[in-house]
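Why does residue order matter? Because the sequence determines the fold. Keep that principle in mind as you read this record.
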Amino acid sequence: MLQAGDAAPAFSLRDQHDTLHSLKDARGKWVVLYFYPKDDTPGCTKEACAIRDRFPQFKKLGIIVFGVSVDSVKSHGKFADKFELPFTLLADDEKKVVAAYGVWGKKKFMGREYLGTMRWSFLIDPNGKIAKIYDAVKPETHADEILADLTKLMEK
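Structure:
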């Protein structure tokens, strides 16, 4: 189980435009790495749109935002286009990154158990260390919570 202070697991994944991104390319900047279950579903759309609506603030602070799910590059493209998402969505269709971050596991919905992606987020500092882990994300208010925490962390 990852903890604050640990090195963030490295990754290289393709985005909604089929461009490869890796965590090492973001070195020197703060990164919001948010994991979500599925493109274009109610909670995931609320979370993505809340981040979209606050994106100018993230950009002004020089923050890189990566949304990650196990959906395909094509699915991410449709989701990003439909909701005009200005940030990067990464396709972890091989489930390697969700496993490395410990966010793939048993979930329950309507009395049924299944494997899926947990709605968790990680703040990664400019040195590639995990600064904060969010394991109880509320989709509608998460962007504001992250911005408040980042502002405090960046002042240190």
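The chain has a mean pLDDT of 95.
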